[in-house]
Target: Sporulation protein SsgA
Amino acid sequence: MERTPGALARPANGPRSDYPITVGDPYTVAGTTFTPVDALNYDEVGYLAAEAETLGITGAHHTLPVPSYVEVTSLETGRTVLARIERRGPMASTHLLALSPAAMDQLGAAPGGPVRVRRVNPPEEQRAMLRAGDAAPLRMDTPMSLVEVLRRRLPESGPATPSAGDRASRADETAAPTAIATVSVEPSAAAGEAGGPTPPAEPPPAGEALSERGPAPPVTSGGEGAFRVQVAAFSTRERAANAAAALGGEVVPSGRYFLLQTGPFATHAEADASLAKVRRAGYSDARILTSG
Model:
């Protein structure tokens, strides 16, 4: 269930309180369309907004799943904090992130300050602290040499750098923006103490593999079969090709991403069999696509 930007209610605690995860539909703020996407390796720089009347060490983000967890780094001091994304926003600007008053205090930043936002999968102990409204331990300060590099990536003024999902929708000129349905994810045994999504059996290095849901995949009509299995999305063709060779799949370019799919299959039963194989390989978010 997606909270409104000004929601004050604290979530119930416990690992299951991180589920279901809401992705949601595209929406527009100040003339900019944001397309929510479950990007596991999200890492962007931009500018900070403040949220009044919100509790805990929490934030609002235009595209990341709700809830999710991010490390926020001040690009003025290098100070880094862990925050929980609980809302969509900021709804009054296209800034990269809005933080609650307590989160702003912990970060030691002011509205309009430059920040880096990186999605992370923290231990369950730290997730529980944030769900309870408490602050997690401070992260190690980011070295100022890296801060200077990150500052060079900043846009000239307030608007955030384009999100991964927004860049993908712009790059794929052949398709209009596609609504991404709310996704309910139940915890699995493989999530373990981290309480996060199950990674592939051999996860690629950071910065390579994207969300297994990935961008809205191109589904062709007709052809040899009506069913395909969407396995994962990658930022490089090489990584996608290596995974495809291991699974007997194929790589389908989609904007700036490379989708790994198996099929086509003539029947749903054949697609189900492939889906089971793919999930046994560790791609727990794989799903069946239909055409026509």
